[in-house]
Amino acid sequence: MWNPDIRQTHNFFDDWASVPDTQVYDNAFKVQWELFLRHVWGEGEYRWDLLEGAKGLQLVDLALKSWKERRWVDVPSLER
Question: What is the mean pLDDT of residues 12-22?
Answer without folding.
Answer: 90
